[in-house]
């Protein structure tokens, strides 16, 4: 049977990240299997209205302004008229929400259930239990997933976390690890500098990704190993911290910032490196690790969340999230 599927999230292209890439590639695979897929998100700058991507993938950029961290203001009622119209017009059978942080995903699933549609939710993140933001988010998740037909997590650690946070039955949750298109990440040793050991970082430069930890280890590694250089791809509020470290330790010739990268540019950055370093403080599944392994890099990562499940032990070096 062929289904009409609506993917909903606050996070989609032109914003860059693992969730955005996952939604796009899953949608393309479903289209290739004969299903109809549309994507609903909020507008990004001048990108608003309806746009078409590869294979006729239809994207609705709805006129809802963001409040915080690329998420729209939670109102429930404001989104109802547009979402209801889209679900009816596109004859949607399944509404698939992505990310526990996405207001639009939760509201779309709520409206879909009231319209008698099937709902699926994919949780891409790990979350705590004690701080105020965690308590509020977990309350929302319990409400949102109370009658969700099925949930998907990207690692077994993520599944345990979601089951506890949302108080749902484990049998309603499946573990489906993220995947990458291996043909897009073919190694190219000729791009590497034979006289240097190049460490690559491809990440959003935010606290959760361990940028303060990275700022602590860069000077120490450069002091111990004169032949090491860093290439940092990505952008975010912690970029200024890393730039200050580069200036304070006079590492301008050994630490290069590339800024925000489109997903199509990631492979060309990875093949220039020998080592990928991931300093995340919490991570359900790090897709950059898989991409780096495809490109033939040695992976070094913090031992957090679902990261130990991503690669076999011989392909990854794990360490506690500490400068020491």
TrEMBL record:
Keywords of this entry: Glycosyltransferase, GPI-anchor biosynthesis, Transferase
Enzyme class (EC, first level): transferase
One GO term of the biological process aspect: GPI anchor biosynthetic process
Domain Glycosyl transferase family: 188-311
Pfam families linked to this entry: Glycos_transf_1, PIGA
Pathway(s): Glycolipid biosynthesis; glycosylphosphatidylinositol-anchor biosynthesis
Domain of life from the UniProt record: Eukaryota
Molecular-function GO term, any one: phosphatidylinositol N-acetylglucosaminyltransferase activity
E.C. designation(s): 2.4.1.198
GO cellular component, one term: glycosylphosphatidylinositol-N-acetylglucosaminyltransferase (GPI-GnT) complex
InterPro entries: Glyco_trans_1, PIG-A/GPI3, PIGA_GPI_anchor_biosynthesis
Residue ranges constituting the PIGA GPI anchor biosynthesis domain according to the UniProt record: 42-131
UniProt protein name: phosphatidylinositol N-acetylglucosaminyltransferase
Species of origin: Dreissena polymorpha (Zebra mussel)
């Amino acid at each position: 049977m062929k289904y009409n599927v609506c993917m909903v999230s606050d996070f989609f292209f032109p914003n860059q990240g693992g969730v955005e890439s996952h939604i796009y590639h899953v949608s393309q695979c479903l289209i290739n299997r004969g299903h109809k897929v549309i994507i609903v998100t909020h507008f990004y700058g001048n990108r608003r209205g309806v746009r078409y991507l590869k294979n006729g993938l239809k994207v609705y950029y709805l006129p809802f302004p963001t409040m915080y961290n690329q998420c729209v203001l939670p109102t429930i009622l404001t989104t109802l008229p547009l979402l209801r119209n889209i679900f009816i017009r596109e004859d949607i059978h399944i509404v698939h929400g992505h990310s526990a942080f996405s207001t639009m995903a939760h509201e779309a699933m709520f409206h879909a259930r009231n319209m008698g549609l099937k709902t699926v939710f994919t949780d891409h993140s790990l979350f705590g239990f004690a701080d105020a933001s965690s308590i509020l988010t977990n309350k929302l998740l319990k409400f949102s997933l109370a009658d969700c037909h099925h949930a998907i997590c990207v690692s077994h650690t993520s599944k345990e976390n979601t089951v506890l946070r949302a108080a749902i039955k484990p049998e309603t949750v499946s573990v489906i690890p993220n995947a990458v298109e291996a043909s897009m990440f073919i190694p190219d040793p000729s791009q590497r500098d034979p006289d240097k050991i190049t460490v690559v970082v491809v990440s959003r430069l935010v606290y959760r990704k361990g940028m303060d930890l990275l700022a602590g280890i860069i000077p120490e590694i450069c002091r111990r190993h004169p032949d090491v250089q860093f290439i940092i791809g990505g952008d975010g509020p912690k970029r200024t911290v890393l730039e200050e470290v580069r200036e304070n330790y006079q590492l301008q010739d050994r630490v290069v910032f590339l800024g925000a990268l489109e997903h199509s540019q990631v492979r060309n950055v990875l093949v220039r490196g020998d080592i990928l370093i991931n300093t995340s403080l919490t991570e359900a599944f790090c897709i950059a690790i898989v991409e780096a392994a495809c490109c033939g890099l040695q992976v070094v990562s913090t031992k957090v969340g679902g990261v130990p499940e991503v690669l076999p032990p011989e392909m990854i070096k794990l360490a506690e999230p500490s400068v020491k």
